[in-house]
Amino acid sequence: MPKQSKHSIEEYCLSLLDSMYDAVLIVDQNERVIYVNDSFTRVTGAEKSKLLGQVLHKVRPGAHMPTVLKTGVAELGIHRVVGNREHVANVVPIFRDGKQIGGASISNNTTDIMRISNELEKYRASLKKMEAMMKKVRVTRYCFDDIIAESKCSIDAKRTAMRLAQKDISVLLLGESGTGKEIYAQSIHDASTRRNSPFIAINCSALSPDLLESELFGYEDGTFTGARKGGKPGVFEAANHGTVFLDEIAEMDVAFQAKLLRTLQEGVVRRVGGAKEIRVDVRVLSATNRDLKQRVETGQFRLDLYYRIAHISLALEPLRNRPEDLRVMIDHFLTREGERNQKNLSLTPNARELLLNYQWPGNIRELSNALRAAAILVDKDTIDVDDFSQTIRDYGIAADYVPITTLKEAVRKAEDEVIQKALLKYGNTTEGKRRAAQALNISVATLYNKLSQ
After folding, report:
1. Residue 42 parent element (H or E)
2. What are the C-alpha distances in Å from 422 to residues 373, 425, 440, 445, 449?
């Protein structure tokens, strides 16, 4: 590059100062004004023609320049009010080859400063909103160590998922409700290169198309009645560099599918009510318990979106096809619920046989809930068939896992429960038993007889 002459560099510097929005004034070592740009007049109201060639403190009383020239020390953030003009100035000495040759004043009016300050405040507020949203983002609770895999199909699925975690591609998780699709999604994220960024799950069937759009893409201020002041970033913005899990994606409205497809293809989102495109970098994992190919054939799901979200599909078998997993899961959930309820829980042989043979249409979720409910409701440490829900008990009766009691035994059991309630109410004292017998409409002798039995 050819070397610039001293003269041309000075011209460039003057052109730069002339074009600056900041007000600039330069004096020599004798405090004589040698340069003023047009912005100085705009900010301070002082005319350039009345300043050039003049000694500054004579035409600008109260100027800090004389002090700076005397001390050689800059003075910053000086608040000046001259007439009806208010501005903030930074006054600095100018040195060449170690020798002070003059000084410069660079000023901005307070209106400009307030405008910049307001913009910065808006920026800070926006950052706070994003930080608050990030704090609310649910981090992954599960990893591959939490997935119980004893059956061959589960071992194969887990091994495949671990490989897929290392590849930054879209994965479609298939399986009945309750088979653990979200646990797999969280585990894939946790084992991926995006593990230190957010994981956000959203249920596509739980929101209307309009609400789903505003949740995924966000919205601008004043877009609709009740919208948050200042707008709101969407899931894709909040999960930038992380993972978005779209659960029950088959239920997504067909019209909205086109908008999602564009985001996945272009890597940009546009907030509802906004015109600006925001670039995002997210990995998308999806899940459904539906036959997506069939929905494509019936026009309920876009073929191009299907190929975009299903670079690879991973199918999870229902629990009824995984007896090896079921045995381990029963003990796993039993131990967990025992710790939660401070009990040493166990199952009767009939209860275990019932759980091993029940079909579990709700899969792992139903099994977990069944043992949790039984653990809470049972008064003892041993869980029997009668401690499960009516649905599970009815299956047990039909399959002969629940023995049918005689009518005499059923009546006796009912009598026992009523007597225990009466004694609980009136007390186990002599007087309490007398009042309990009276309430039960039996003699005290009969009550003592039944208690002895």
Report:
1. helix 38-44
2. 26, 5, 8, 16, 15
Residue 437, classified by CB atoms within 10 Å of its CB into exposed (0-12), middle (13-18) or buried (19+), is: buried
State how far the Cα of 137 lies from the Cα of 282, in Å rounded to an integer: 15
Nearest CA-CA partner of 28 in 89, 72, 94: 94
pLDDT in tens, 124-168: 776 666 666 555 555 678 999 999 999 999 999 999 999 999 999
Cβ(367)–Cβ(329) below 8 Å: yes
Q: In 3-state terms, the chain is what percent helix, strand and coil (to 5)?
A: 50, 20, 30
| Consecutive H or E run containing 265 | helix 254-266
Cα separation, 222 vs 228, whole angstroms? 8
And the tokens for 113?
């400063």
Cα of 244 vs its chain's centroid, Å: 9
**pLDDT under 70: residue ranges of the chain:** 1-8, 111-118, 123, 126-139, 222-230, 401-405
The residue assigned the tokens 């912005």 is 39
Whole-number Å distance between alpha carbons of 243 and 164: 14
Contact by Cβ (8 Å): 162, 251: no
Task: State the Cα–Cα distance between residues 124 and 146, nearest whole angstrom.
Answer: 39
Give burial (CB, 10 Å; 0-12/13-18/19+) of 224. exposed
Burial readout 31-63 (b: 16 or more C-beta within 10 A, e: otherwise): bebebbbebbbebbebeeeebeeeebeeebeeb
CA distances (Å), origin 332, targets 125, 154, 262:
46, 16, 43
Give the pair of three-digit tokens for residue 448.
């003592």
417 vs 411: CA distance, rounded Å = 10
Dump the DSSP string for 281-336. --EEEEEESS-HHHHHHTTSS-HHHHHHH-SEEEE---GGG-HHHHHHHHHHHHHH
* 245/202 Cα distance (integer angstroms): 6
pLDDT value of position 121: 73
Beta bridge pairs of residue 283: 243
Instruction: Give the mean pLDDT of the chain.
Output: 88
At residue 1, the pLDDT reads: 45
Q: Which segments of 316-433 are extended strands (E)?
A: 346-347, 382-383
Count, residues in the chain: 453
429: amino acid identity, one letter: T
d(CA 129, CA 274): 18
pLDDT tens by residue, 411-426: 888 888 888 888 888 9
Which helix (H) or strand (E) element contains residue 163?
helix 152-165
